[in-house]
Amino acid sequence: MLVVMKFGGTSVGSRAALQQVVNIVSKAKHAGQQVVVVVSAMSGVTNLLLDAAHQAEAGSEAAAHQARSVIEQKHAEATLHFLGDTPTRQQVMAQIDALLNEFESLCHGIHVLGELTPRALDVIGGLGERMSAPQVAAILNQAGLAAQPVESTELIVTDDRYGSAVPLIEATARKTEAGLRPLLNQGLVPVVTGFIGATETGITTTLGRGGSDYSATILGRALKADEVWIWTDVNGVMTTDPRVVPEAHPISRLSYAEISELSYFGAKVLHSQAIRPARRVGMPVRILNTFEPDHPGTLITAEESDNGKSVKAVAAIKNMSLITVAGPGMIGIPGVAGRTFSAVARTETNVLMISQASSEQSICFVVPTPDVPRVIKSLEQEMIREIERRDLDPIQSENNVVVLAVVGSGMKGTPGVSARLFGALGGEKINVIAIAQGSSEFNISVVIAQGDADNAMRAIHREFELEKP
Ligand code: ADP
Ligand code: ASP
Ligand code: MG
Q: Which of 40, 135, 230 gets mutated to test ligand 2 (max ligand atoms within 8 A of its CB)?
C-alpha cells in the first residue's frame, strides 16, 4: 500500500508534533506501507515570511530581520532537540541559514525597488516549506527511518498564475514518477516540500494558502497512491469551524462532492482545490489528527453516506463583497449576463456565488474584496454606453459580507431545509442579502453581513442539531 501523508504547519511546528510525525511514519513503515511525506512550513513561518515581504515593499526591512531571527530560533530548537549538537544538525542548519540569507536579500531587493511582484512573493512564501523538508527528513533519519528531502519544484509542474498556480497533470505525473518512484523502490521515505510547484521553465510558484493539502493529492494522483492522509490538528472535518462553534464535532464520512463544497466555502481544514485530483481517480482521502493518531478522523470517498441528517456541516467564507449590476433598462440589454461575466472573467477573479432575480432587473455576485476595484473597472468599461444612457446604474459593491454554505447530500429532496435555515437566521434577526442553491441540492449558500457570521453559524448548528453525533 502506498500512502501520501501530508503534515500541516502545527503538525511539524513543535517538538511534540515532530515526535508524533516520527511515530506515525514509523508505524506505517513497520506495517509495510510505502510512504511519501509532504510537509508544510513550521506553523507561523509562512505568515512571517509574507508579512516581511509586504513590509519591505512598504519601506521597512525591520520585519525581515525580525522574522529571520524568529524562524532561525524555531528551527534551531527543533533540530537541537532531535539531532543534538551533531554534524547532521549543523548541515541542516546550514541549509536553513542559506535559505534565510536568500530571504533577507530578496527582502532587501524589494525594499530598494519598492516593488513586490507576485512571482517574488511565491519564491519568498515557499521558503518555509524548503526549510521544513530537510529538517523533517533529518529527524526521520535520526529515528532510523531512511528519508530523503525532495524539492517539489522538481515534481509539480504548474501554470504561471503566481499565488494560486494550477498543476499541469501530465507533466507532473511524468516528473513525479521519475523523481519519487526510484526512492520508494529503495525503501526510502521522500519528504517533499508542500505548497510549491514550478512552471515548465522552472520558475517557482505556489498553490495558494494552505496549498500543501493540494500538493499531497496532486502527488497521490501522480503516483497512483492507494490513499492520501492529511494529518492536521483536529479530529477530521468537523460540523463547522471549531474556533467559532465549540460544540462542533468530527464527521466520520463525507463524499467528494460534500467536501468540495465545504472547502470551497471556507472550511480551512482542506485547501479549496485539494479534493479535485483525488476525486478524478477515486482515491480515498482521510483527514486525521497528528495529536490523536488513533482517532479515525474523516474518510472522504465518492460514496454519498447517509448519517441520518439532511445538513451535515456549515462553512463560511469571509472578506467577500457583493457586486450588483442593475438598472431600469436592464431587461432591454441583450446578453447582459454574458457580458457581465465575460467582463469579470477578464480580470481572472473567482466568482463564489451568483444570484439573479427573475425579473432580470439585477444580477448580483460575490467576489473576494481585494478583487473589487479590478472587477468594477472591467464592468464599467464593458457597460460604458449603457451606464451613460442610464439603462444601467453605476456598478455597486457591498463590502464586509460572508458567504455561508450549508452542506449535506441528505438535503436533496428533503423538504423544509431552507425554511429551517431561514427560520434560524430570522430568529437571530440576521438579514439575508442574497441566496443561491445549486441544482445538486447539496448546498444552500446565503450572503450575510460579516458581523453576523459567527452568530449565524451557531444558530444553524443548533437548528440542525449538528452538535448531536
Ligand atoms: P494545517 O496546518 O494542518 O493545514 P489548518 O490550520 O490549515 O491546518 O486547518 C486546520 C484548522 O481548520 C483547524 O484547526 C480548525 O481550526 C480549522 N477549521 C475550520 N473549519 C473547519 C472544519 N469544518 N473542520 C475542521 N477544522 C476546521
Ligand atoms: N505553509 C503554507 C501556508 O501557510 C501552505 C500550507 O500550510 O499548506 O499557506
Ligand atoms: Mg492547512
A: 40
